[in-house]
Backbone:
């Protein structure tokens, strides 16, 4: 039972990160009409954060772990990275509205 729960959790985190990355890409495309430099900056930072978050998902929820347990040293990093992606989307939206 633990194996399927870990797998579902890993897939859920992966979906969350990829959906936030999709929002960042769409936002960068919309921002391109307002300010190209800001759009590229938002896209670059978003891709870096998403890559780090996906690496965190892979470390936190490996496909198979010998002991069956989770690593406890990574507890807050993954939610913080997804929150950073959401914050980046908010900042980009603010630039779009004010620009």
Residues:
């Amino acid at each position: 039972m633990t194996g399927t729960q870990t797998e579902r959790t890993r897939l859920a985190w992966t979906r969350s990160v990829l959906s936030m990355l999709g929002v960042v890409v769409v936002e960068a495309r919309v921002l391109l009409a307002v300010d190209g430099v800001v759009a590229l900056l938002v896209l670059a930072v978003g891709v870096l954060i998403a890559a780090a978050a996906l690496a965190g998902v892979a470390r936190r929820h490996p496909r198979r772990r010998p002991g069956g347990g989770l690593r406890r040293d990574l507890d807050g990093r993954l939610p913080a990275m997804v929150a950073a992606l959401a914050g980046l989307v908010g900042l980009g939206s603010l630039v779009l509205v004010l620009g």
User: Anything to note?
Assistant: Residues 2-31 form the longest helix (30 residues).
